[in-house]
Design a protein that fits this description.
mainly alpha
């Protein structure tokens, strides 16, 4: 039951909430405990918030998930939990998130979480069935995480960094749509998945190119922006760009060659080249930002 509960709230998907650490890393406060502790709390709260949305989404999509070749094995469509118990879990997670945010941080941060809840609830109920609005809703959710990470430690965040976050989120969302299209290619089941009928393989390929290009350009411009150079006292952050490019190419390879782009979390947690690349990127970035080299 415990294992099924953690599968239900998708504990492994909490890795997506590491976006709240981005402002901390680039704020020169990573090794200061008061700042680090606040961001850790924010990460935990966004984890609870995300789990609330995941369970709510599974309730809404229950019938469709039962017919999906992969999602039908999730705890709710597989019959491990009843609808009533799932709704109860949603309520417990929702109110626990809000209460803990007020007690551990402040009411202003709670407002950000409520906006996050509202956006994702609208996505589950409406936006995910509207072409383009679905992927932009996902990207906005990641941007909220980055903004929250900056807000909780009261530091400004570069517009270039926010744009880079939006583009990487768009890229991942487009790759997910591409993967779903390939999975159901030539299958009439795609007709029951409303938004997929509005996309095509060629369209998602073009969107992936645009979003990947936007990510690289915005990140590269961030590394050499006057404000960035003044804060870090160096232009060497530009040398972390190849790791960003490799990460994009590796993800595209996994999707276009191996059709593994539907589950971003699985790639981040299991693909060795992706893990090594991410580790090296973080290591080099921290060494440059904090002048270890």
């Amino acid at each position: 039951m415990i294992a099924n509960f953690f599968r239900l709230i998708r504990i492994t998907s909490w890795v997506k909430n590491f976006f709240v650490f981005i402002p901390l890393i680039f704020s020169l406060h990573l090794f200061e405990l008061p700042f680090l502790s606040k961001v850790i709390v924010a990460f935990f709260l966004f984890g609870l918030a995300s789990s609330t949305i995941y369970v709510f989404n599974d309730i809404i999509d229950l019938d469709a998930d039962k017919e999906h070749p992969v999602k039908r094995f999730r705890p709710l469509p597989a019959g491990k939990f009843t609808i009533k118990s799932a709704y109860l879990i949603v309520l417990i997670l929702f109110f626990s998130t809000l209460i803990l945010s007020i007690l551990l941080l402040d009411f202003s941060f709670t407002i950000i979480l409520l906006i996050f809840f509202a956006l994702n609830s609208l996505y589950t109920l409406v936006f995910k069935n509207i072409v383009l609005l679905d992927i932009f809703s996902i990207a906005t959710g990641f941007a909220i995480r980055v903004y929250a990470g900056a807000f909780v430690i009261s530091v400004p965040i570069s517009s270039w960094l926010i744009l880079a976050t939006i583009f990487v989120s768009l890229f991942l969302a487009v790759m997910k749509r591409h993967s779903e299209l390939k999975r159901f290619e030539g299958n009439s089941e795609i007709k029951s998945r409303k938004v997929l009928s509005s996309y095509s393989i060629d369209f998602t390929n073009q969107m992936a190119t645009v979003s990947a290009s936007g990510l690289v350009i915005c990140y590269a411009l961030y590394t050499v922006a006057e404000r960035t150079v003044n804060i870090f006292g160096t232009e060497n952050l530009i040398y972390t760009t190849p790791f960003v490019v490799f990460g994009i190419f590796r993800f595209m390879y996994l999707e276009y060659i191996n059709q593994k782009g539907e589950n971003t979390t699985e790639i981040v947690l299991t693909d060795i080249p992706t893990i090594v690349n991410l580790f090296l990127y973080l290591l080099l970035s921290i060494m440059i930002i904090y002048k270890f080299i």
